[in-house]
Design a protein that fits this description.
The complex is a heterodimer of chains A (459) and B (417). Chain A is built from 15 helices and 17 strands. Chain A is an alpha/beta fold. Chain A starts with a helix and ends with a strand. Helices cover 5% and strands 56% of the residues of chain B. Chain B has a single domain, classed as Beta Barrel (Porin), CATH 2.40.160. The longest helix of chain B is centred in the N-terminal third of the chain and has 11 residues. Chain B is elongated, with a radius of gyration of 22 Å. Classes of the chains: A alpha/beta (459), B mainly beta (417). Chains A and B meet through helix 1, helix 4, strand 2 and strand 17 of A and strand 8 of B. Strand 17 of chain A pairs parallel with strand 8 of chain B, so a sheet runs across the interface.
């Protein structure tokens, strides 16, 4: 009997012990907010910038894309996403021309949604995400309203009126005689700032084929950037700035020509060094309009993504084919180069490229003298574009099992300028790389494959 | 008998389930539950048809047993993905599943007994809020199966080396349903994909076992259960997915229910006490992917198949149980058990369809003889799964921490005529 008692006792105590060990384990020991910020302080993160910071995609700023803006993704990795407020706009968002949406997948067809969304959470101002689509560098300090921010923000009759300032900025700030973004940043006592302005100082020129907004002269840019840096430094926050991507690396500029070539609609004639339209009657040189004259389209002339519908109309016979000087492709649909005249000052492409190079020179020198961290997005995009070109359009950015080519629907949204959700995650990861190395921090990278594409679809 | 099975099947229709590693359910008998399934050498109850068909050998008279186990799993998830704030907690919706079982045996000759078992050896049910952070991985998932298992057991003549019994039977997957539902976040607005499938046709497998009692009060048992490959077929619906999807399609999926074997040792150290240790092996590596084949090409998928990698490992369980009949109250039997269950899912492939984890199980049970031939059985199992943190999950997974426990009360009867 004592054997039995011992036996039972043994079993019971073993069971009791195991119950104790497993059953009483503290299941709330997870600390998701592990402090891995290193020397940086993320307690108040503010992002300043333009549409790239705002999370604009597919030609519109809308809630389901804003959720994946690169600053929001970055804030999540900092464990700050709940306090990181953005000026959300209900789907399908606000954007001139309306959001670009998929209406068919195979073959791929997009349409514009003419509906507009409305601001959702205006009561959360001031916003941590001060990305204002359309914002230019001068908007940051806007000394004496030199950039006319006030008029562009508040006067609907102004041709340069931009509805996003009102959405992103406080009314009280816009009521001032010289409102600026800096005041909205400073009042939040930021400890960490990402600053990415300057793209629109050249992009407006590029997207209008050199016919709209003019390029901010490099000297002005330098002056404005230094003034901005002063303002940023005065906040006492750690500041991270971003370079300006070369315009030829965005699909808005390079993609349509490649696409037309792939479709066999146009072809490059290497003996004449001109692009030719492929027709039933043979191939004919394509003419483009350049400052009122017609020139043959050469290797450094890029029909912009905005010329997509023009070429569709050409194919439908609604527009005469651009094979005569008098029916040249309209100037605003082409970013022309200087191969025809060999004069760089005559080339939209060269001018834009020169401006970008000078801007980036300014950014890196101002950053280094102010001890700002630089995220060289220009280099990132350039490397991706080089990979894309050298692989005949097969490869792009390889991450987490993905191959994100720099084309609409992969790294870029259908507008050809703004990244997709996953493109934003790539930018956030590049930001994390920079943070980890500059501040000895240990933020986790984002698994880009887990970020849903979220392509907008038409109803 | 036919009618009885039909009735049982109707009851089974409302059963789903969850919880044992993988999606196996070892709770096939209320008495076995009391000993946490350490039952494959016990062989003194008609539910041996599930645990070891050799136990039928020499089982006397007409025996009937039935019962049901309620499985009440509870899981929470804390997010570590980049899709929502870190640490954000989601609770799985509370679902309780009724998993009944039924067995009958009849002694044909002295040594030969035939029987039939109806039970649900595989199943799972998980349901997460439709707007939760992991909705792209899973919203609702359920698998239900009903197996019918006609079996025979035979006691070999005495060769002078101890008592030997053998048994075997057919395992027929007679009924099955699956439901898979998840959000499709590749498009905005998001849509929902749902597949409701039923077992296309009965699927067959077998089981066989042996019991060996070399000396009195010591029994060794071995049971093998084969794989059963089932095919489910049904309607796939694509809600709120206007571009790239048909409005509906037919979908089918093949799911292989794994093979398993048990090595069991039962010792009766003193009069009235039976103790048993069982090692159960599961061949989960057969479950390498879940592929859904559609009857048409779906542009958004770039084809007509969705493949979810599973890549399960083989796994094992160690089950210990004891039964004591001489408690001092006439007709009362007490049982207890403890088990460790290793889960088959690699960290990378854990997803909310089945937030599996290694777990400890604890049980207690009683039987009370109401009359000489009728007893009622009751048991209670508590399962505590280890907290499981998964990062770097595969494409269909979501990074986070799962915490799971479950309560499994069960009640049944045993009739020995």
């Amino acid at each position: 009997m004592s054997y039995f008692k011992k036996y039972i006792k043994g079993i019971l105590s073993l069971a009791f012990l195991l119950a104790l060990v497993t059953g009483c384990k503290d299941y709330n020991d997870l600390d998701p907010a592990a402090n891995n910020s290193g020397d940086a302080d993320f307690s108040s993160y503010v992002a300043v910038g333009n549409s790239l910071t705002a999370g604009l995609q597919n030609g519109a700023l809308y809630e389901s894309a804003q959720k994946y803006s690169f600053p929001k993704l970055l804030a999540r990795q900092m464990n700050k996403s709940e306090s990181f407020e953005q000026p959300l706009i209900s789907n399908p968002g606000i954007g001139s021309g309306g959001r670009i949406e998929l209406s068919n997948l195979d073959p791929l067809v997009t349409t514009r949604n003419s509906n507009q969304g409305n601001p959702i959470n205006q009561e959360d101002k001031p916003f941590s995400n001060l990305g204002v689509p359309g914002a230019v560098l001068v908007d940051y300090m806007n000394p004496n309203n030199a950039g006319n921010l006030k008029e562009r923000a508040t006067d609907q009759s102004n041709p340069a009126f931009n509805p996003f300032y009102k959405v992103a900025m406080e009314q009280a700030e816009l009521a001032k005689s010289a409102p600026n973004l800096h005041n909205q940043v400073a009042k939040q006592n930021p400890t960490f700032i990402t600053f990415w302005l300057g793209n629109n100082d050249v992009l407006g020129y590029v997207t209008s084929g050199g016919e709209g907004q003019s390029i901010t002269p490099a000297a002005n840019f330098s002056q404005l950037y230094q003034a901005s840096a002063q303002g940023l430094a005065a906040t006492g926050a750690d500041v991270m700035v971003y370079t300006i991507p070369d315009v030829t690396n965005i699909p808005f500029v390079f993609y349509l020509r490649t696409q037309l070539e792939q479709q066999g609609a146009i072809t490059f004639n290497s003996s004449s060094q001109t692009y030719q339209l492929v027709t039933e009657n043979g191939n004919f040189d394509i003419y483009i309009e350049v400052d009122g004259n017609a020139e043959k389209m050469r290797q450094d002339d890029f029909p912009l993504l905005s010329a997509q519908s023009y070429f569709a109309r050409v194919q439908n016979g609604q527009v005469p084919p651009p094979i005569q000087p008098q029916s040249a492709i309209p100037d605003e649909l082409v970013l022309d180069g200087n191969l025809a005249t060999q004069d760089a000052s005559d080339s939209e492409l060269e001018q834009a490229a020169a401006a970008v190079a000078q801007y980036n020179g300014t950014i890196s020198s101002v950053a280094s003298s102010n001890n700002f961290t630089v995220v060289d997005i220009n280099k990132v995009f350039k490397d991706i574009f080089t990979t894309f070109q050298s692989s005949q359009g097969q490869n792009g950015y390889q991450t987490d099992g993905l191959n994100l080519r720099p084309v609409p629907g992969e790294l870029f949204s259908f507008d050809g300028v703004h990244p997709t959700n996953r493109g934003a995650a790539v930018i956030a990861n590049k930001s994390i790389d920079a943070i980890n190395s500059a501040y000895n921090a240990n933020l986790d990278k984002i698994n880009v494959a887990k970020i849903p594409e979220g392509f907008p679809v038409a109803n | 008998m036919r009618r009885l099975i039909a009735t049982i099947c109707l009851i089974f229709l409302c059963s789903g389930s969850a919880l044992a590693s993988g999606f196996s359910i070892y709770e096939a008998s209320v008495r076995a539950n009391g000993m946490l399934g350490a039952f494959s050498a016990y062989a003194d109850h008609v539910s041996t048809i599930y645990y070891n068909p050799a136990g039928l050998g020499g089982m006397d008279g007409l025996r009937v047993s039935g019962g049901a186990t309620i499985i009440a799993p509870r899981s929470t998830f804390r997010n570590l993905s980049s899709l929502a704030p870190r640490g954000q907690k989601t609770s799985m919706e509370k679902q309780n599943f009724l998993v009944p079982n039924f067995y009958g045996s009849y002694q044909v000759t002295d040594k030969l007994t035939a029987g039939i078992g109806v039970y649900a050896p595989f199943g799972l049910g998980t349901k997460w809020p439709s707007d939760w952070v992991g909705r792209g991985s899973a919203i609702e998932t359920s698998i239900e199966t009903i197996f019918v298992s006609p079996s025979v057991g035979y006691q070999l003549p005495d060769f002078g080396i101890g008592k030997i019994k053998i048994g075997a039977g057919v395992r027929i997957a007679a009924h099955g349903e699956v439901k898979l539902q998840r959000a499709v976040a590749s498009f905005s607005p998001e849509g929902t994909f749902t597949l409701n499938g039923e077992l296309e046709k009965p699927a067959y497998g077998y089981h066989a076992g042996i019991l060996y009692e070399p000396v009195k009060d010591v029994t060794l048992g071995f049971t093998y259960r084969s794989e059963v490959t089932t095919t489910f077929e049904g309607d796939a619906t694509f809600e709120n997915l206007n571009v790239g999807f048909p409005s509906e399609a037919k979908g089918s999926a093949e799911i292989t229910m794994p093979s398993s074997y048990v090595i069991a040792l039962n010792v009766k150290p003193i009069d009235g006490l039976s103790t048993e240790l069982d090692y159960v092996w599961w061949g989960w590596s057969s479950y390498d992917e879940l592929a859904i084949n559609f009857d048409q090409s779906i542009p958004a998928l770039g084809g007509s198949t969705i493949v979810n990698e599973r890549n399960y490992n083989n796994s094992w369980q160690l089950r210990f149980g004891a039964e004591y009949t001489k408690i001092g109250v006439e007709g009362l039997t007490l049982r207890g058990g403890i088990a460790y269950d290793e889960n088959p899912i690699k960290d990378r492939y854990v997803d909310p369809t089945l937030p599996d984890s290694d777990r400890w199980l604890f049980s207690g049970g009683v039987s009370y003889n109401l009359t000489d031939y009728l007893a009622i059985d009751a048991a209670y199992i508590f399962i505590r799964a280890n907290q499981r943190k998964v990062t770097n999950t595969h494409e269909g997974g979501i990074d986070g921490v799962y915490t799971t426990y479950a309560n499994l009360p069960s009640l049944g009867f045993t009739l020995n005529l």
